[in-house]
Amino acid sequence: MQATCHPDKPHQAHGMCKTCYGRWLRENNGMSPCHPHKKIYARGLCEPCYHKWLKEHKPRYKELERENYLRTKEHKRAVRRKRLYGISSAEIDKILLEQQGLCAICKLKPATHLDHDHTNNHVRGFLCDDCNRGLGSFRDNINSLLNACIYLEQGGWRK
After folding, report:
1. Distance, CA of 115 to CA of 129 (rounded, Å)
2. Which is the most buried residue in 10, 47, 58, 103, by most CB within 10 A?
3. Which residues of 112-142 are buried (b: 16+ CB within 10 A; e: fewer)?
4. pLDDT band at 143 (very low <50, low <70, confident <90, very high)
């Protein structure tokens, strides 16, 4: 939405751009335009008018808040993965597509955890919760994992 005072600038509040709205607030000592004898509470409105506005707009406002939270959460996750592992969202999508969305180890459950080598942060793939915890329990020690495989194949300590 464009400001009525300066059509080339975005709308801040009450049809004004940010600069004009700030000037207007200073000139009116922060008093509300809806009730000039009351201070601005939120969104450029006095407290009763704000609560009335919120009651009318709350369902849509909550929906927008939720959408923004999810968008921000996903963005933060993508930035963190890029910083720590040097992997983009497109590369992540490619890996998940290659794995058909399933765990790289058991291939039964949905892949929800990014697995990486703890020595060099190289991404290996995506794992389910159980396989990720199992691999973590062995601390990426291949010898321990091989011993566990032999143990399972032999049926334990009793034959």
Report:
1. 11
2. 103
3. ebbbbeeeeeebebbbbeebbeebeeeeeee
4. very high
Domain layout of the chain by residue ranges: 86-159
Going by C-alpha positions, the residue among 34, 30, 28, 31 that lies closest to residue 14 is 34
DSSP string, 13-63: BTTB-HHHHHHHHHHTTTB-SSSTTSB--BTTB-HHHHHHHHHHHHHHHHH
Q: How many CA atoms lie within 13 A of 114 on its CB side?
A: 20
Indicate the pTM of the whole model.
Answer: 0.57
Structure tokens at 141: 């020690």
pLDDT for 159 equals 57
Q: What is the mean pLDDT of residues 9-32?
A: 79
Superfamily of domain 86-159: His-Me finger endonucleases (3.40.1800.10)
Q: How far apart are CA 121 and CA 123, in angstroms?
A: 6
Name the more confident of 91 and 16.
91
